């Protein structure tokens, strides 16, 4: 089964992060890097985004 890839707007919607946050976290190694899917297009493997989300600490909702 082929891997599904997410473009940046879908990654932003899935993670709740802004474009600048995504790229800043990529620079520090805290977010997966995209793969090139075309001459001027990149996308993130959905499995990489799901793994990143699963590794994040869960919020308890307590303040």
TrEMBL record:
Q: Which domain of life is it from?
A: Bacteria
Q: Which Pfam families match?
A: Phage_AlpA
- Which PANTHER family does the record cross-reference, listed alphabetically? DNA-BINDING TRANSCRIPTIONAL ACTIVATOR ALPA
What is the protein name given in its UniProt record? DNA-binding protein
> Per the UniProt entry, what species is this protein from, by scientific name?
Sulfitobacter pacificus
